[in-house]
Amino acid sequence: MSAPRKILVTSALPYANGAIHLGHLVEYIQTDIWVRFQKMRGHECWYVCADDTHGTPIMLRADKEGITPEALIARVHGEHSRDFAGFHVAFDNYYSTHSEETRFFANDIFGKLKAAGLIEVRPVEQFYDPVKAMFLPDRYIKGECPKCGAKDQYGDSCEVCGAAYAPTDLKNPVSAVSGATPVRKSSDHYFFKLSDPRCQAFLRRATREVCKTQPEAVNKLQEWLGTEGENRLTDWDISRDAPYFGFEIPGEDGKGTGKYFYVWLDAPIGYFGSLKHLAARTPQIDVAAFTDKAAALKAGTELYHFIGKDILYFHALFWPAELEHAGYRIPTSVYAHGFLTVDGQKMSKSRGTFITAESYLKQGLNPEWLRYYYAAKLSATMEDIDLSLDDFIARVNSDLVGKYVNIASRCAGFIHKRFDGALALASSDLLSDAQAAGESIAALYEAREFGKALREVMALADRANQFVNDNAPWELAKKAGAEAQLHAVCSEALNLFRLLTIYLKPVLPKLAADVEAFLKVAPLAWSDAARLLPGGHRIGEYKHLATRVERRQIDALVEANKESLAPSPAPQAHSQQRHAEHQQHAEEKTAVSLISIDDFTKVDLRIARIASAEHVEGAEKLIKLTLDLGTETRTVFAGIKSAYDPATLTGRLTVMVANLAPRKMKFGLSEGMVLAASGDGPGIFLLSPDSGAQPGMRVK
Predict the structure, then answer these.
(1) How far apart are CA 124 and CA 118, in angstroms?
(2) With 80 as the cut, is the pLDDT of residue 65 above it?
(3) How many CB atoms lie within 10 A of CB 635?
(4) Comparing C-alpha atoms, which of 683, 629, 677 is closest to residue 653?
(5) CA atoms of 532 and 434, how far apart (whole Å)
(6) Any idea what DSSP says for residue 21?
(7) What CA–CA distances, in Å, run from 687 to 610, 629, 635, 653, 675?
(8) Is the Cβ–Cβ distance between 161 and 150 less than 8 Å?
(9) Hey, which of 113, 292, 315, 538 would disulfide with 118, CB 3.0 to 4.6 Å?
(10) Are β-strands 119-129 and 134-135 bridged in parallel, bridged antiparallel, or unpaired?
(11) CA 42 distance to own-chain centroid
């Protein structure tokens, strides 16, 4: 047998500003299954994760609740830990990015990138309080609502009429900190030079290796990189001004700079922070062997990230480039998965399908039902998976109860009552076939083809059930002189049941533990499939191992998660959609009205490269775009979700209105508008310039 591998595995860090829901669990269950499989194979495998705790949303939520950010993230950490444990997600360490371990690695990586000439300081314009000498987040600006005139309203929305707007729209704006009138002011920010030729050359090589098991990911990364000699990657603003909940960027003199690391800089670094925290109480872990480039190569360690496809850009471009040029090891592989739909649609609060982990558990539903269903749907691709509630009921009842557990329930009683719990020596071609299948099933687990692995397991379960049906132990028990045959049949069936349990254990750890107790065996390892239970081995009394899913349970779960459909006095939830529609209607109106050349030149149209694109949670129509204009980046919320997958947008050129007044929406500030065409029929079509156009060029 080859030497055990040394593996570090991570899942993306959940943000400490909300509850874990069933969509999140796709990733954590997938990762947990893979880790459990590696441990069953005898490998040294560590699974670390942490809450992503920094950023303005955390600061604002804590301020609204009247508590410190530290108190907020501590509470959410407890909630997340509870939910993950409820679904048997067994982290070796679940930590927080707000830690001295993460700060150490963030400072070290930043310092080494700076020494390598990959950090640059550039000015960025923001709102500023001249009295307190501080830059102001939107929620620290107050004034009169531009819609209804209500006084003392925040800079992003009105609590009286529900209107959303930009701080610049407020009448008589004042700083909520000092009462002074805010002004626009430039601030120096730190940028990571991802556009540097060294990063470009490295990523062209590395991305093919890091994502080699997912050709669709490699293709997307190469599209973002562009052709050889083309520079599509933009530099990344990695700093924020105070007030900001995060780590202050250190200066060369050892003192603070007054700037803070942007949350996306220290979030993935939190993987290493969590590992360092684990290593402090686990002497066999050599942190350098998993983090340092030279030490990792010498030790032969492996590093795997499981992530959603929406953050592939960060994990397969920004992150490896930072690590490589700071002397750290890069991931062995980045595994991206798709999103979850429920009954073929995105999760919906109104339909009751936006289901939290806590709600599922509180309804008394077995978490392993969901683990099995997800595993049966998961593959190694980035395709979305669908939680069909009817199929969920049918598959769990058919596979787990009707096939797997059914084998033991029909045979164990005879062993206990007629043979004092002792098994007969078992041997057959069917058992040999089931043992031999272990390696092909293992290969599928290794490749994250869980759906295919479970199909093989259930095919074995079908054969085992057919064996039981053909030999009918319930009939043998009534037949004189058939004691030996009854003993042999039931013993063979329970050996088959044990083999199936080995193959299902990564997916069903709690049920497997119950089976181990019933069979009176030590915790099952994958290698145990090579051996059968010996003749004379005594098992325990059989007790019911699994229950069926009832339709009423699922109906109750959906009902418990339905959001009231009563109209709200403040229609703030749809402010983003209204803004997007307003922009589109305004565009249509100008298309049919004659204007002068002077009118046209007032509109500043610029070429922009989409640096990143991501889903906006809770918004049905919007995609959040980060646009590179050459000398600056802008955030725009575009109502194009029905036509585009965010994963297909990053890297492409488009045209934006650069001098449109910013508008504050529910999910952030929209600093412009991208141009798209639409007609009477379905479809939205984003405008793209000819090749050769560069970000920042003006459209005339």
Answers:
(1) 18
(2) yes
(3) 16
(4) 629
(5) 11
(6) B
(7) 12, 16, 17, 8, 6
(8) yes
(9) 113
(10) antiparallel
(11) 27
Is the pLDDT at 329 greater than 60? The verdict is yes
Are the beta carbons of 180 and 198 closer than 8 angstroms? no
Task: Tell the residue number behind the tokens 């994963």, with chain if given.
Answer: 647
539: nearest Cα among 499, 498, 508, 507: 498
Q: Are strands 385-387 and 340-342 parallel, antiparallel or unpaired?
A: parallel
Tokens of 123: 């000015």
Give the chain's end-to-end CA distance (angstroms, integer). Answer: 69
**By the 8 A CB rule, do 53 and 16 touch?**
yes
Scanning 404-481, the segments in alpha helix (DSSP H) are 406-418, 429-446, 450-471, 473-476
Coarse DSSP helix, strand, coil percentages of the chain, rounded to the nearest 5 percent? 45, 20, 35
Amino acid identity for residue 627 in this structure:
L
Q: Taking a C-beta distance cutoff of 8 angstroms, is the pair 104, 113 a contact? A: no
| d(C-alpha 338, C-alpha 3), whole Å | 33
pLDDT tens sequence across 452-503: 999 999 999 999 999 999 999 999 999 999 999 999 999 999 999 999 999 9
Residue 351, SS3 per DSSP: coil
Question: Smallest Cα–Cα separation from 468: which of 515, 555, 391, 406?
Answer: 406
SS3 category, 595 = coil
Residue type, 346: K
pTM: 0.77
218-246 pLDDT, tens digit each: 998 988 888 887 778 889 989 988 889 99
| Helices and strands (DSSP H and E) totals, the chain | 23, 27
Secondary structure of 122-180 as H, E, C letters:
EEEEEEEECCCCEECCHHHEEEECCCCCCCCEECCECCCCCCECCHHHCEEEEECCCCC
- Rounded CA-CA distance 114/153 in Å is 42
In this structure, what are the phi and psi dihedrals at residue 281, rounded to the nearest 5 degrees? -120, 10
Distance between CA atoms of 445 and 105, rounded to whole angstroms?
33
561: DSSP letter: T
User: 360-392, pLDDT tens digit by residue?
Assistant: 999 999 999 999 999 999 999 999 999 999 999
Token pair belonging to 470: 């053909």
Asked whether the beta carbons of 644 and 678 are under 8 A apart, the reply is no
The answer on pLDDT for 638 being more than 60 is: yes
DSSP labels, 97-128: SSSHHHHHHHHHHHHHHHHTT-EEEEEEEEEE
Query: How far, in Å, CA of 124 to CA of 147, rounded?
Result: 29
For residue 93, give the nearest of 331, 264, 280, 294 by alpha carbon: 280
